[in-house]
């Protein structure tokens, strides 16, 4: 039996489409900006730069604050279901998450933004689409 190259390509396309099935467009962006279980306060500058986290609407392009949730994506996803409570168009986590919060310390323009981080434990507030988190709206000190 001979396998044709076009059959292999079709199989690869189907695998890719099934792996992303049901996830809204903003989900991967949300993960890139806010979910990193191995984050530490010492990594603020490096991770924000490596992940290309910027605020284009500002005069200097530096994002004032970025929050990294110290959990895996499966745990964060549950906030859009039973582990979250509706609050208007958002959902607030029923339980707090450990996190690293990176705040802009100095820097004139992107990519020269410098951040200082601190750890905390807070409930998260996210916007969900079709059961997936797509926007980090806020956090609540517990």
TrEMBL record:
Keywords: Disulfide bond, Endonuclease, Hydrolase, Nuclease, Secreted, Signal. One of its GO terms (molecular function) is RNA nuclease activity. Its main location: secreted. PROSITE patterns: RNASE_PANCREATIC (PS00127). One of its GO terms (cellular component) is extracellular region. It is found in: Secreted. It holds the Pfam family RnaseA. Residues 1-22 form the signal peptide. The keyword Disulfide bond applies. Residues 23-140 form the Ribonuclease A-domain domain. GO terms for biological process: angiogenesis; defense response to Gram-negative bacterium; defense response to Gram-positive bacterium. Belongs to the pancreatic ribonuclease family. This is Ribonuclease A-domain domain-containing protein.
């Amino acid at each position: 039996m001979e396998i044709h190259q076009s059959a292999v390509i079709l199989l690869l396309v189907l695998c890719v489409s099934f792996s992303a099935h049901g996830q809204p467009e903003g989900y991967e962006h949300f993960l890139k900006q806010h979910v990193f279980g191995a984050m530490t306060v010492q990594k603020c500058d490096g991770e924000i730069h490596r992940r290309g986290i910027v605020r284009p609407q500002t005069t200097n392009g530096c994002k004032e604050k970025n929050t990294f949730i110290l959990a895996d994506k499966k745990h964060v996803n549950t906030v859009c279901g039973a582990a979250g409570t509706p609050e208007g168009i958002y959902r607030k986590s029923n339980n707090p998450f450990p996190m690293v919060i990176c705040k802009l310390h100095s820097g004139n323009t992107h990519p020269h933004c410098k951040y200082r981080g601190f750890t905390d434990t807070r409930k998260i507030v996210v916007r969900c689409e079709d059961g997936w988190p797509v926007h980090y709206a806020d956090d609540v000190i517990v």
